[in-house]
Write a structure and sequence with these properties.
The chain contains 13 helices and 19 strands. It is of the alpha/beta class. It folds into three domains: 183 residues, FAD/NAD(P)-binding domain (3-Layer(bba) Sandwich), CATH 3.50.50; 123 residues, no CATH class; 69 residues. The longest helix is centred in the first third of the chain and has 23 residues. The N terminus is likely disordered. The structure holds flavin-adenine dinucleotide.
């Protein structure tokens, strides 16, 4: 009941802002308790917490939709996640409970990377050898990280060893980057219980559903936050708004490249954001004819001797589809050729593994391009070598009312939607303490 009335209050407050849509206006509305910049997972989590507390607030979102890097699109009648898809660490992921409450079905099948892959192109003995080497690699990461000295993860790999290209490829999927740009201490700090669920209706659909009752001003690009003023002033393409607290949830790219600025300037924080760049992960979906030939949730390797390779999840949810995953510099380069470049590459690899006729059975239906997305400029953050401490710098509160949230400030579950969600809730708690 308290929750419902709080939402009514903020809807009423969001009215004047909506009325100003598209117009150049300045200070045309009352002050807010809090302004949230960005309506992705972190911003929505923060908004829900403020709504529960009955505060006046608004989310300012530059896109014409909520969800940010959590985005489900519809293609060939299927809900396809272009950003996050897996509820990682599902046994302690807050979004699992929220999905259940929201009536979303949950798929608990073992993910393909935890099973033996299709032997075509990667025979079972070779897979065993690779998995053993992967295990040794993770053990080295743990041992070396305990020494507390940060360095590139690449120093833990023998460049000439048999499985190094595939370990590199795995890093591009997991971290969005090659290991020479990956901080050992940050990589080792990531926590994962290895329980992974999925949502047939889409993870992006869940995140935006959870924000559906919040007052979001779409198409509102925040350019400057004057945190020296009282109340703070937030300058946007639609005018100036004021609030006693501001929660910033934009990706590190927007802070590092100065598209969102601060007055007074925050050089240490901007430098921290630059040390947490977004790596690249992209997905291509291929519709698949005669899909029954493949096991549900199976996996195909396109190549095993190069890091510039895609990984193929076949029949997710039993659907007649292949979800191809691309990462790192290789994905960034393919983006310049659009969906056709991803499809050419993927179909070429699949034909190499499954035979020339296979080309007739697949056709591209959707593709992401996160490096080219101006409001993301990448997929998820990783720390550069020597900068494992950057997440703490970026996430520390500023003064009496400016807070930072988003996946990049999570100390142990960065690069995920549930990590972003947790940081949004934490930033809202800190803002509420100030607002008291
Ligand atoms: C291909 C891919 C696969 C992924 N897979 C998984 C997965 O399986 N599981 C998982 O947990 N995570 C996954 N992730 C990561 C996950 O999607 C993100 O970590 C999470 O969604 C980030 O949420 P956020 O709120 O921190 O940032 P965002 O979602 O980026 O939200 C920030 C918002 O701020 C807005 N914004 C930016 N600049 C401005 C501005 N100046 N003014 C106003 N608004 C602005 C943006 O438009 C955006 O909506 C994946 C991501 C990608 C791209």
């Amino acid at each position: 009941m308290a929750h419902a009335s709080a939402l009514c209050a903020v809807r009423a407050i969001s009215g004047p802002l909506d009325a100003c849509a598209g117009a150049a206006y300045v200070d045309c509305m009352s002050d807010f308790d809090c302004i949230i910049v960005g309506a992705g997972a972190a911003g929505i989590a923060a908004g829900r917490a403020l709504a529960r507390a009955g505060k006046s607030f608004v989310l300012l979102e530059a896109r014409q939709r909520s969800g940010g890097r959590a985005h489900t699109t519809l293609a060939a009648g299927m809900a396809l996640d272009m950003g996050c898809g897996w509820l990682h660490s599902a046994d302690r992921n807050l979004l699992v409970g929220l999905a259940q409450e929201s009536g979303f079905a949950i798929d608990r099948q073992t993910p393909p990377w935890q099973k033996t892959a299709d032997a075509r192109g990667f025979d079972a003995d070779a897979q065993r050898a690779y998995r053993a080497e992967q295990g040794r690699f993770f053990a080295r990461v743990e041992t070396e990280a305990k020494k507390g000295v940060d360095r590139p993860v690449s120093e833990l790999l023998d460049p000439d060893a048999r499985w190094t290209p595939l370990v590199e490829a795995m890093s591009t999927y997991v971290n969005g980057t090659e290991t020479d740009r990956l901080s050992l201490l940050d990589f080792a700090a990531y926590e994962d219980t290895e329980i992974n669920y999925r949502l047939p209706e889409g993870y992006g659909a869940l995140v935006s559903r959870l924000g559906a009752d919040l007052p979001v001003r779409h198409g509102c690009l925040v350019r400057l936050i004057d945190h020296g003023a009282r109340p703070m002033r937030v300058e946007t393409n639609l005018g100036v708004l004021r609030a006693r607290a501001v929660i910033v949830t934009v990706p590190t790219s927007a802070l590092a490249n100065g598209s969102l600025r601060f007055r007074p300037a925050l050089p240490a924080r901007v430098e921290a954001a630059a040390m947490l760049p977004l790596g690249i992960a992209d997905k291509l979906f291929l519709a698949l004819d005669d899909a029954e030939e493949f096991a549900i949730d199976s996996r195909l390797y396109g190549a095993i001797d190069t890091s510039a390779t895609a990984n193929y999840h076949v029949r997710p949810f039993g659907r007649p589809v292949i979800e191809a995953y691309f990462g790192g510099q290789f994905a960034r380069e393919l983006e310049s050729g659009g969906m056709a470049a991803f499809a050419d590459f993927a179909i070429g690899q699949l034909v190499g593994v499954l035979g020339a006729d296979f080309a007739r059975r697949v056709r591209p239906i959707a593709c992401s391009a996160w490096a080219s997305d101006p409001l993301a400029l990448g997929s998820y953050s990783h720390a550069l070598p020597g900068h494992a401490g950057a997440r703490a710098i970026l996430g520390a509160p500023q003064g009496e009312g400016l807070f930072f949230a988003g996946e990049a400030v999570s100390p142990h579950v960065f690069s995920t939607a549930h990590g972003a969600w947790e940081t949004g809730e934490e930033a809202a708690s800190a803002a509420l303490a100030v607002l008291k």
